[in-house]
Amino acid sequence: MPFTPATNRRLVTAALVGPASIWLFVFLVLPFIAIIVFAFGERAPEGGYQAAFTFAQFANLGSRAAAFKNTLILAPIGAFACLLVAYPVAYYLALKASAKYRLLLVSLVVVPFWTSLLVRTYAWMYILGARGIPHLLEMVGIENVRLLNTPGAVLLGIVYGYLPLMIMPIYVSLEKLDRRLLEASADLGARPLSTFFGITLPLSLPGVMTGIALVTILLLGEYLIPQLLGGGKVFFIGNALVDLFLQSRNWPFGSAIAVTLVVVVVIVLLIAMRIAWRVAGTRQVDLV
């Protein structure tokens, strides 16, 4: 019996979506279920997991308050700092750069991703270390300047490492902007600043919100930058997880922190999507 067109469409959809769904279930859903099970267990005497059902691990989250505090403060600040740097760059690429060189300039934005983040972070360790900028300042009479192992160094590493992820969504949003709106605004006598705040910025807000959500979510689980540029003095939740799973081998407590982190990420994502969709609905633009 021949299949109906509707059945054919469902079969094609299942064939296309099925492999990805299986992949996500095996490598995302199942591990997360295991983490949830661990979170309600107890630490075995020799370390690891021991079957139990207790909320003690969640009740003990306050012992890692410093990691949560650093993450929940520095991650949004880092995302906002990325935005301050990324928006002018994206604006120039989308609206000011010559079409002849635009592709080259956009490619240069992505070039840092061709090098390992570890290598780039080690480079900043040298620049901010005793033989870098502090040594140059000492040569001109400014002594006892410490840049490495500070929150400022971590923020600098965050901006450098995640800047391309903020630039690209904003660039896509601005590149889709109807230039006739800008021309009409100029023809009606609006000043450039009024045109920017009245047209350009509102229509690019979905890209801005996408960039902020993307960078913030990744920063909530960041480990490498705080570890190297913070020198063990600026702990993120990712650093706490590494310590609990690999050093103290307290898998249930580490799992409880991981579950809490996932909940925070979901909340941030839902808030960002809600704001972006509301802006997209009111401004009639697409969410990038």
How would you portray this structure in words?
The protein has 288 residues and is mainly alpha-helical. The protein has helices spanning 5-39, 56-59, 65-96, 99-110, 117-128, 133-139, 151-175, 179-187, 192-220, 224-229, 237-247, 251-283; strands at 42-43, 49-50. Strands 1-2 form a two-stranded antiparallel sheet. Helix 3 (65-96) crosses helix 11, helix 7 (151-175) packs across helix 9 (192-220) and helix 11 (237-247) packs antiparallel against helix 12 (251-283). Residues 283-288 have low confidence and may be disordered.
Largest sheet: 2 strands, antiparallel
**Overall pLDDT, averaged?**
87
Radius of gyration: 24 Å
* Number of E-state strands: 2
Helix content: over 70%
Order of helices and strands: HEEHHHHHHHHHHH
Strand composition percent:
under 5%
Distance between the termini: 43 Å
Shape call: globular
Strand order of the largest sheet: 1-2
Helix/sheet category: mainly alpha
Poorly predicted ranges: 283-288
Q: How many DSSP H or I helices?
A: 12
Organism: Rhizobium lentis
Domain ABC transmembrane type-1: 68-272
Subcellular location: Cell membrane
Protein name: ABC transporter permease
